[in-house]
Amino acid sequence: MKKPTSIPSAWEHVQLGAMLADLKEEHYRTVLTLSALLELLLEKGIVTVEELQAKTSQLDNQMDEQLHKLISSSLRPIQ
Questions:
Q1: Which whole-number Å values give the CA distances from 26 to 6, 12, 29, 35, in the listed order?
Q2: Could you tell me the maximum CA-CA distance found in the chain, to the nearest angstrom?
Q3: Alpha carbon of 32 to those of 14, 18, 25, 26, 41: distances in Å?
Q4: How far from the centroid of its chain's Cα atoms is residue 62's Cα?
Q5: Assign residue 45 a region: left if phi > 0, alpha if psi is -120 to 50, beta otherwise?
Q6: What is the pLDDT of residue 63?
Q7: Which of 1-38 are b and which e, b meaning 16 or more Cβ less than 10 Å from the residue's Cβ?
Q8: Does the predicted TM-score (pTM) go above 0.70?
């Protein structure tokens, strides 16, 4: 028999909200740092916009393929 799950308390909701706010702040800082780095690479002529777009597309396709494989494998019965 499954153990009944408890209803989260108001304090647990507050803690979860605080954790989410921390994650949003960390995400903002990460995106800001990446944006600054990309701007510097472009300004210095180390990479071009076209190279960034091509690499972004390549990585996106790879992630899509990996995600598709993961989902497909989880839908197949284990033999």
A1: 30, 21, 5, 14
A2: 64
A3: 27, 21, 10, 10, 14
A4: 14
A5: left
A6: 93
A7: eeeeeeeeeeeeeeeeeeeeeeeeeeeeeeeeeeeeee
A8: no
User: What mean pLDDT value characterizes the chain?
Assistant: 88
Q: What is the pLDDT of residues 23-57, one digit of tens each?
A: 999 999 999 999 999 999 999 999 999 999 999 99
pLDDT of residue 72: 81
Cα angle value 64/68/71 (rounded, 5°):
140
pLDDT at 8: 80
Residues 38 and 52 sit within 8 Å (Cβ to Cβ):
yes
What is the rounded CA–CA span in Å between residue 49 and residue 55? 10
Token pair for 43? 């300004």
